[in-house]
Known about the structure:
It is a single chain. The chain is mainly alpha-helical and 503 residues long. The protein has a single domain, classed as Ribonucleotide Reductase, subunit A. The chain is 61% helix and 3% strand. The chain contains 21 helices and four strands. The chain has helices spanning 8-16, 28-31, 56-79, 91-119, 123-150, 160-164, 171-181, 185-214, 218-248, 252-281, 289-308, 319-325, 329-339, 353-362, 367-383, 432-440, 442-445, 451-456, 465-472, 486-494, 496-502; strands at residues 407-408, 411-415, 418-422, 425-429. The strands form two sheets. It has a two-stranded antiparallel ribbon with strand order 1-2. Strands 3-4 form a two-stranded antiparallel ribbon. A hairpin with a 2-residue loop joins β3 and β4. α3 packs antiparallel against α9 (218-248). The longest helix is centred in the middle third of the chain and has 31 residues, at 218-248. The termini are far apart.
Amino acid sequence: MSAKKLGLKQRYAHMTRGLDWETSYQKMEDVFPYDRFEGIKIRDWSAWEDPFRLTMDSYWKFQAEKERKLYAVLDSFAQNNGQLGLSDARYANAIKLFLTGISPGEYQAHRGFAFTGRHMRGVGPRVAAQMQSLDELRHLQTQVHTISHYNKYFGGLSEFRHMHDRVWYLSVPKSFFDDARSAGPFEFMIAIGFAFEYVLTNLLFVPFMSGAAYNGDMATVTFGFSAQSDESRHMTLGIEVIKFLLEQHPDNLPIVQKWVDKWFWRGYRLLSLVAMMMDYMLPKKVMSWKEAWSIYYTEAGGSLFEDLARYGLRVPKYSDIATAEADHISHQNWAIFYQYSHAAAFHTWMPDAEHLDWLSEKYPDSFDRYYRPRWEMWREMEKEGKRFYNPGLPQLCQVCQIPMAYMEPGKPTEIAFRSTKYKGERYHFCSDGCHDIFCDEPDKYVQAWLPVHQIFQGNCGGGSVPEVLDWYHLKDGDNRDYVGSADEALWSEWHPDKVRQKA
């Protein structure tokens, strides 16, 4: 008789058999020193439920099939000069920001989950962390493959790895992942698995990948949706961490709530860069950031936290502030980058009349009153040959590391400013959310590497802008305004008829 084929549950049980061993000549606390110091109490590790129960042989077969399809599309895009089908060369700047900001973060997540998988004594979370660690490494590889194509034609991508550790705006995603990786294993899983992957990931992937499709970028669409199929597992891991911890012991609730509050706010501040991409950097628009926030956070997140209320978990602190800021955050970020694009590895520009009207339609309660007059003034300055670049260096928030340019809640014409003293030094923050995070762990955040502070201290190649840009490896032409750039000249060479028609 032929051997009976094992079901998925039995195969998963065989794969994990014996991994939950107890040490004999060393203390378990010495072998697994990290999964208790956060104060989390675990009664029964076997209660962890992995709904996917993905075995290694299934994982490699599943991912190999996706790889074949993915690289076939990417290679086809390259061989057929897919970059010629983009809606406009301005779109390439959204890709520059996304790929240089997010791709190194994928590698950080890979390292973080590898560490977490080693330091969980339970078999279920250990295997799940291993799978996600592999996924994150794969995501980095596919994104670097996409970078390798666009780097042939557009500036600002060739030194992405070098810039990751040095350039001021890339310190925002870097500090997010550095913060998560230097936390304990349970906090890391909530930071990445729950707050980022479950609560906020759809704001990153769904609207932006749809925007890539609208703008003819099939390379980004392909790696995006290839990664998104992994995200379903990652989201499941994120929600399982929350439920597992809250079901294990009632003392875990206040710890988990604090982490949810913290990482919601940190993730929201990071994704405000996506808000700017959606509203300003896509020539063909999909939806506004305000609409995306309403769909993917207010509605979806509201349902999620209604479900989690049975465990005693409440909606993240300051989520009401984030919702109110949806009317403003993308415009404020674009103003920051427009002023400082001489120190950025991508281009900015002032919206044309059609774009301004679209923004007025999508933001009827804020844009015409607070932002359109500023844009129109800057457009007039451009016409007079006085394109505005801010000659100073901005104060950065000690936690999120974004320049202090956000509004006081309920007062759009006032800049929010918080500060506190710690051990004789004063630290500055862009919001109550970042201020609270600092005050909870000040010894951690006083160590933050703030680019502007480092420039003033002479640690960034010198004291002048050219010296700092050279230290960044930022080449002249990768930065400043799109009009007159090498990207615009190349696009005009590719599409002379479109350029003449638009003129």
